[in-house]
# Entry
Amino acid sequence: MNIGIHEFLATSALLFTFGFVGVLVRRNVLVVYMCLELMLNAVTLALVGFSRFNGTMDGNVFVFFIITVAAAEVAVGLAIVVELFRRRGTVMLPALNHLKH
Amino acid sequence: MMVDVLFYIFAIVTLGSAACVVLTRNAVNAAMALIVSLVGVASLFVLLSAYFLAVVQVLVYAGAVVVLFLFVIMLLDEGEKRRVSPGSLTTAASLVAFVLLLVGVVSIVISEDLVVAGVAEKRTLATTAPVGDVPNQYGYHLFTSYMLPFQVAGFLLLVAMIGVILISKRYRNASGSREGV
# Structure
């Protein structure tokens, strides 16, 4: 029972960095989106840990709101991705450079 | 002792499947690994005795969000044919950013500043009381101190619903061809 806040925060930090690298290196918009979800989950894990080890309820309530916002965000984002695929025929990021030319 | 072992098992499962999301080549495999990672986070919530949040995490993320991801992957059918690998410069820059972020965050995490002022001993799962282990605490806080954010969140869901309908609706002009929004 020696697990304290440091272990949870270290897990959360590693999860966040994995999501961060995924956003940078992946070329599929959908997978980039999944990595964004990983980063959101890392933050929720840190908030729940803070809440538990500080003895307050606020972090848990924040996590509740974060999950709500993430669900709405995924719905809108995936609708945009589907519309993008209808117009451009691809969801690979290097092919989506029409603002550059 | 049991809780320690469980924590390390859950953390390794969560982080390993998160690495799979980043490293796997197929988008469907990435979505499957994402499910495992989200359920791993939910099990860490259980260890933190936030049972309600663990259930919500599994229901909303693993149940709804990943299913939506899978639907869109199947719908788009990008397939294996158009594979684009990142450039070497991007990979190198990403690795540098990874190391910098990791060093920064871990140095914050292991620093002594995290110890709460006035508390001598280290707080562990055994020495702290569960917070938020019953759902009525969430209800109490949502309807007292977080009333305004709660209503804003409800409005946000309405806006998201209308926005998705507007984005995915096909507009046609008088001649019947596709028309931009």
